[in-house]
Batch of 4 targets.
Target 1
Amino acid sequence: MPDRDPPLPSVPQSRNVPKKRTRLSLVWFIPIVAAIVGAWVAVTRVLSEGPKITIVFRSAEGLEAGKTKIHYNGVDIGTVTDIRLSEDHQRVITTVQMAPKTQGFLVEDTKFWVVRPRISGANVTGLGTLISGAYIGAEIGSSKETKSDFVALETPPVITGDIPGRFFILKTPDLGSLDTGTPIYFRRLQVGQVASYELDKDGKNLTVKVFVRTPYDQYVNPDTRFWHASGIDVSLSASGLTVQTQSVLSILIGGIAFETAATDPALPPAEENAVFRLFANRAQAFNPPPRNPQTYQVIFKDSVRGLAPGAPVEFRGIPVGEVTDVRAQVDLKTFEFSVPVIIQVDAQRLGVKIMDLKPGENFEAMRRKMIDSLVSHGVRAQLKTGNLLTGAVYVSLDFFPGAPPATVDWSQKPVQLPTTPGQLEATEATVENIIKKLDKMPLQEIGDNLRKAIADLDLTIVSARGTLVSAQGTLDNTSNLTGPNSVQIQQLGDTLREVSRAARSLRVLADYLERHPEALIRGKTGEAK
């Protein structure tokens, strides 16, 4: 029997084994790292860039894309990247790339403007741009609303930064020499400046915005008065010559002054943006307000040259009102020319005291009674010269006892007061009367008598000339008698010498008798026997 084969060893069952993946090649490592780095750089750059904004300007003068910077307190916070015209070609639109972390600057009341060399009022700014070129200035607002589109200011704001103080609004019909940057004075100390001004929509007034620094803003209260202090305020009027100024700077560029009247109790400071009136001068600013103004009309037939609205009205030298209007009129019946002058009288405002006025008494009735009494006693309105240099005149109310009687018609509107001719007209009337009297004089007869008197005077002069000749001969004879070699002069000299010797002997005798009075009886002692 054949031998059995030995059993074969067991073979493990086969299975599919997946092929192991090979490692990434080193060739791919560098591109992957470069891509990661590029992505990181791109993300970092995007995250590091600030926001983009647009600023609209009237002109691109001085601006240059890629070079013009935006400065805030001397720090660059952005760069102009693009400049283009608007669709209507009227404006310039600039795109600005802001610096990182400037999102908080871009709010509703943030302001931008172009900084160039500028002289405004007392300020000289932007001189550094002569070397570095123009740049865009910025003032960060305090609003909470964000904004990315802005319109640049035409002129830089005068007050920038966090300067403590307050703004106030002034209303004036005339800007005068004011400009942005014009100084403001308080007791001749510069305490602020004009920030801006604009014409009102109705065209009647201007709105001037001024800034007063701390601590001087506390002296502005509701009773404060502002007035023009521009240059040298020279006023030539019927009141005389007035010269006022605040400082040398105000003479050159003008200014505004303010002052607060003393009140008891003291008023609290005025609020921010409080509105005040800007007066022409200090006198108008502190002129007391009208209390009970009354309007009257006075009609003059003489010249009113030199009389203008604002001229004073005086009663016996005391100001009681002012002229408000001067016009002319012609009577078509008589063709007589006259000038009605409207005056406003407010005696109480100017300090005229009314005595013995009982409480509750009708003041209007008392006023009419007083005017009637004054007119009946000769009070008339007259034009008088107030200033010889300028020829300005004013209306004077005074007593004229010789004036014709007159009454006041209270039904007229305005009430007419009687007048009397002015000084010039009175002088002309006097001269005219003198001329009339001269015309009545017999000038021909006076001339004939004068010629006869002159002829008689000639005869008298001839006779006097002969008398003078005779007198001259007499004087010549006298001169011969009194000449230096005449006999009479020599005899007179001898006589005078004899008299001199006799006088000398008498003087000696008198001296001896004074010392020896006994000599009259005994004789002179020591005589020879």
Note: The chain has four domains: 48-151, 165-285, 294-421, 487-514.
Target 2
Amino acid sequence: MEEDDEIRAHFPLSFGKKSKSKTSIESIHNATRRPSTTETATATATDSPFPALSSSSKSWLNSLQKNPKPNTVITDDVEIGPPRPPPASSSTGADDDEDVMIGPPRPAPAVDSDDEDDDEPVIGPPRPPVQSDSDEELSDEEQGNQHRIPLSNEIVLKGHTKVVSALAIDHSGSRVLSGSYDYTVRMYDFQGMNARLESFRQIEPSEGHQVRSISWSPSADRFLCVTGSAQAKIYDRDGLTMGEFVKGDMYIRDLKNTKGHITGLTCGEWHPKTKETILTSSEDGSLRIWDVNDFNSQKQVIKPKLAKPGRTPVTTCAWDREGKSIAGGIGDGSIQIWSVKPGWGSRPDIYVANAHSDEITSLKFSSDRRTLLSRSVDCSLKVWDLRQMKTELKSFQDLPNHYAQTNVAFSPDEQLFLTGTSVERDSTTGGLLCIFDREKLELVSKVGISPTCSVVQCAWHPKLNQIFATVGDKHQGGTHVLYDPTLSTRGALVCVARAPRKKSIDDFQAEPVIHNPHALPLFRDQPSRKRQREKILKDPLKSHKPEAPMNGPGFGGRVGVTKGSLLTQYLLKQGGMIKETWMDEDPREAILKYADVAEKDPKFIAPAYAETQPQPVFAKSDSEDEDK
């Protein structure tokens, strides 16, 4: 044994093992490549097929195709690996351009200047190219092209049967939550998910109520779920229910005296810094701040300022990045902002009466607390300066919005912001993801997400550098994840490259065979009770069959059956001596008309009272005594 171990030590560990065939990463990402959009349809065949990319990104990709980096495989214009430096300008002639470059790329030539020494050797990676005067002229025109947007590849997280109206990604980017109008919340885990892209858990927070908002806690150990019901729920990271907030008394007129919301919720968001505080808004016209450790009552009630008395729903709410301000979008189109400070009340610090002409669907603060974005059903997106809220900085129109959950989001560096559009009737554009430049306040690009479904929620995760967009209609729903193999990290890259596990012989389970199923009481048929039912139908008592009417005299064919001494019963028993018309006659007259006959032939009256009545003794007439 010792000799075998010594011999084995001279061979590598992989000696004798069979190498498994592996699918290359290039082919995997080629399968998830996005098709070209309308923006690239007019491009020539030599242009880059990347959809919705800026011109600087296209020129960068074209330079990669002309001068490929060694040890890097490029298939279908997709480069795997770190980006390469721009090619060095060659001045040796046309012969050098046609030769194939072997080895690492040449360093960029040094620029002649007084500050640099021409004879100084270049140590380390090549210097970036120096911007020329022509580039300076184009920099103003292509300033928005500095942002490298991950749009080359796409995967879809399916599972919902209706539009996906809520989206939340935890801070690490490993777990994704999606809520839908089909009343369910699906949980996806990139680390445990394979190429089938299936959710590992599905929950239904409130039966028969749409899911309207989902928000992770700052520590990502719990999440808030807001539905169309009046009670929000808290779940742990694995989808187990931790608690449900109380519902208020709907018969109390003053909302400040109720312990909770009385009608359906519209939005909810966790505090960005404090993991015990959440904010909710409702159709009852109030915003409420809750403590997750006390589900029986809220901490504070905020009633917005209204132009006219009544109850106007609060359609959306939002915290700023530090949790020092609260913004609420009111159903009358106004924006109201409250500063969280000691002794603050329901009076807003900032009030914009006619911010939008219709309901506001989303509000978003920038991290520097200078910019506020608002999205509305009136097909507009407005940019506000929090230091001057009288008028908006910019209003982007012609952005269809048919859903009350359509949001607006910032890019990781907050130089861009994006929102989705809805599909209009008789429209051929489909659902788009519109990306805008925050500094220039102009449209950067439009990305086609779905040809038939509307884009509702969107998010740009800072750690993954991937864009999430939820789509759907009345029949289907899903979450599109846009990424770039060269720009994005983890997330979709992890699960796409993980093939589904093959079934082994250990997974085989033989189905049990029941040879005589009717021997068990569970599978035995019930005995026939046909004869018993026929016997019961014949029994008038068990079948509760009503008695048939009797023929002959009497009211309704009924004759008294008791052995009584009533005169009418006796007469009717004797064979119908009185016709049925006796009920319409006077009983006294009907009897006295037989008085003369009874005196002569007493067979009618006298036998009836023979046993019970004594002999009648009639008094003699007084007239006879007077005559005597």
Note: The mean pLDDT is 77.
Target 3
Amino acid sequence: MAKFINEAYTTICSERTLQTNDNGFFMDFVKLIKKHAGDSWIDNEFGKLKSDKERIRCIYLSERTQKPIVNVLSNVQEVFRTKSAGISQGKRLEAEKAFQKGDLRSSLMLYSQSVLRSPETCINNHFDSGGTLSLALWGRSEVLMALKEYSLALNDIQSALKENLPNIFKADAFWRMGKCYKAMGEKIRATVSFDLCEKLLENNKKRLEELHIDREMSITVDLATIKIGFLHNILNERWKISLTWNTVILTGGHPIFCLIPSVDGEVHEIYPCASRKIQINESEKLGKYAVANNDIRTGETLVVESPYAACLLPEMFGTHCHHCFERLKAPVGCPDCANVAFCSMACRNKAVCSYHKYECKFLDLLIGSGMSILSHTALRMITQNELSTCLEIYKNKSSERVYSLCTNAEKRCADDFFQRTLMAVFLLRCLQKAGYFRTSGRDAIPSEDEFCVGELLLFHLQMLQFSAHEIYETRKTADCCFKDSRTISIGVGIYPTVALFNHDCYPAVTRHFVGKDIVIKASRPLKRNEIIAENYGPIFTRKCLQERQICLNSRYWFQCQCNACMFNWPTIDGGLDNFSKRVKCPTESCSYYFTLPLLKDSVKCPKCSKEVTLTQQYQSLKLCEEQYEIGSQLMNENRPKEAIAIFCKAIDTFHRISCPPHKETHTAQEKLQLCVASFGNVSETLVRRN
């Protein structure tokens, strides 16, 4: 297997887990400090250090590195996209023109940009007398009502009133609120709102007549819109419900409503996010790994886990909520920066009260460094907690499950440790300047508490390289066609339970996401004590042995020895069609498989020596393949729930009477994964290819 080791590619992969943007300045910082330190010092002094505690202190205190590091870090300062009342006003005026032309989609987008760029009320009185935010929210509410998005419109109206909406709009505000409540089926609140409007219009006979007509007029709205709006306002608790929004809503479509499932069976007593059918074992060769504690059927939900920490990719800042990762429709902004957007005030408040208050004014600097999403997640694991909590975690690391995850520290070279320590140093300096430690950040040399946090950062940067998961959504065409769907990464999260699952090129589970929560389902049946493995990226049906091994060796530093690798199973496009089908000996205790075709149905088993008839096995295998076709047809008809039931039953049957590799079964498993993912993060943003 030595032929699959590519040291140069391994180095590149390792560096990419720190800096992904070639235009970033971090690797230039590394080269500068390397020049001062010298290769000999890095290898023979720094490289001999045994702990993260020693490394983080050495890099600051050594005569070789202290001065150049302090000189560079003294330049760290706030760099972020500021609010602009002028830009906000301009976008609002463009939005008004688009609305007058009937272009609701463009109008909504422009109003949202106006909301996000607007400073808080009265911060800049040169534009709209300081009321750019209230006017942007007010204008957007009209567009949302035209789109029959009454719940979101109501939020904007109420927010506009809180932001001192000019008095000339007050009567209309209660009027609009009455219409929204009426459309949502909340008659009492609608009556109260209309009454308030009537009181404000008591001297305007013409407007009162118009109001009376509106009060009596029925509003037709789709039941799903009412249901979603109600749940979004009332049940906005991430552990209970997730709403993934579809961007086609901007032209009148409906959001996709996704419930977070529960695990099947009893809940695990040690791992509360997992089923009791899972057991975590540990060995010197495999480390910690998951096995079946009982028989598991295809389709069973084994883990539903919220992330310990998660970060949105920067390229998704304009399309997804910075906090919950749901698609944006009527976003609200941070009070200070114009970098990020949130789907609701609830998400904004959670973010601003925790991690975002420390990251907000340094986001452009962090992005400009070119740092990877993993490096950002390493920082988020700190910023999501206050300093006192963070120091408590440091003292009790042994009781925190995330700090027992693999770092492969024993395999790291001096240069790798050096780069990761410098990233920890940079992130620590950002925390100092952001006021995380309740100091001015004037002194770049850390205090003892700051050294402890730096040590945690260095651990995170090692652990996340091997344990983090990409968070993704499925993008489809407006007709929800599976054929044209694509999986797109939107962020990264660390899931301490799922991180314990080992890799297999023929995985036993499939994963999808609902918001930030990961859902693990069985993609094939498992017997008690069988390993429950997931897939780290290279799956045997799509990548040949050499590609898989190079990828796994370089990215995850291990040599895969699963059956697909040991027996070099062919890919779907590389000969799997020609692989002989097999059926199991019908004798219950026998594990022999007959290779098809056979000259006759009745044969003597070479293992158990019994005369056996294989007619039923033939028929069952043929039935499985027929069921796969039925499941595929149901997919084409956009009936994923029914397709899942067909696929699961047929895949269970196949593994009872046959064994992989088998092209039809693996194709069915891929389709099953698509169907399952359709109940998670989905957006209808793709245009159908002709």
Note: The mean pLDDT is 91.
Target 4
Amino acid sequence: MGNDSLKKSSQNASENEDSNQLFLNSVARRRNFAIISHPDAGKTTLTEKLLLYGGAIQQAGAVKARGEQRKVTSDWMELEKQRGISITSTVLQFDYQDFTINLLDTPGHQDFSEDTYRTLAAADNAVMLEDAAKGLEPQTRKLFEVCRMRNIPIFTFINKMDRPGQEPLSLLDEIEAELGLMTWAVNWPIGSGEYFRGVIDRRTKEVSIFTKADRGKEAAEKCFLLNDPRLKELVENELLEKALEELELLDEAGSGMDQDLIHAGELTPVFFGSAMTNFGVSPFLNAFLEMAQGPVGRLTEKGTVDPLEPNFSGFVFKLQANMDPRHRDRVAFIRVCTGRFEKDMIVSHARTGKTIRLSRPQKLFGKDRAVVDDAYPGDIIGLNNPGMFAIGDTLYTGNRLEYEGIPCFSPEIFSWLRNPNPSAFKNFRKGVNELREEGAVQILYDRDQAKRDPILAAVGQLQLEVVQHRLENEYGVQTILEPMSFQVARWVDGGWPVLEQVGRIFNCKIVQDAWLRPVLLFKNEWNLNQLLEDHPKLHLSAVAPVVSGVEPLSL
């Protein structure tokens, strides 16, 4: 009997050891990243080509699909297909080589930057995409600052090298001067525009020569060592000599390669290529997976939690309604932070204190989903959301913890949203509440509760158009937008008691947000500065503080 017990104990120990090793291996092979860029830099095209090289799709769609061409995989919303732009974040998970990749595709349009801010909260790495002709652009700079706030490692892909553009050395200088970010070119272009011939890998001294493929197909690549005599037949001598001279300059004066500085967000590896023609995409993907950091710890009220902690935990960074119009579903996007997620597991909900069974978890690939049995730190899973989740919510097993919340950023345009058909109020209310929950737009309310019309507050006009479009197409409600003449919003530090002490104020409108906090709306920065001069003890914030444990107001 003693021998049987010892044997069983030994077997259990062996199974636990195997399980632990599986967990460690699964976490080690995860890579998670978001792509950030200015509109029209080619972000959606690069996303498609990464999926193509990863074997997740067989043919990439052009950004503006025509005729029989595929629509891009990452753009699922009808309005996205009509306009040829990404206006909502999606998640694309696929396997490549020995890695499981979670690619967080974000909107490129500046009107949807708040969705991108939230998505970056779930990212471990960021790929900064630049147009070789335009260099750094305003939206890229804004998103870079969000990455810097979160110490996210940044990998730079300079796109459209097959078109006339700036000198590569000038592009590196601009990144270093304007972003204060050291650069290290992983590969270097041979020629540009119509004379773009390929890239030289600085580490291996290999030259990758590319031949154009049919539109949307994977390009054929040929690799040669720098001293291979066949190169002279494929590349003009003056182009190759110029590239080698520039590399010599970089070796003498540029930064050195340092993995620790990359992971600290202080040095960016730089890659050159052309997503549309597949030049440089495969070398970029391979090098990125080698250099990128795996899942990292996330900050909670108790400090940073190691992703190798055995208990499961994760947070909601995005909500999306009606990804499948046939089922009117609502999906919560969860970033797995620690432990192993398992189908049907019971978790605690930090904000409400309730316990929830997670019975239908989904692996996401754009709008396509499949039931998933398990997930690991770095993965993104989708959960059906019957109204119990809010952005920033923490789910966990074991001892209670709560991840730091995701703040709201200051909107810049405001409009009354009118419902001209009283009989449609029920659907109007449902649509407004669900779109607010998923962060499609911020909702403000007049202090007079008798007024049922909400105020839409957004970063850009296109956000408001999307809300109207979705209310009509997903909820069957036609609405009217009445613009308001305000451009600046600020939250009052200390809330209503502080505002009451200040007394009567002029040249601004006082409203409240979904958490009943006072928000001041100003017509311009001058009015804001005038108020602060008149009331120097009044402190206002452009970023709304995170609210924990409080249910937001519904319409």
Note: The chain has 14 helices and 33 strands.
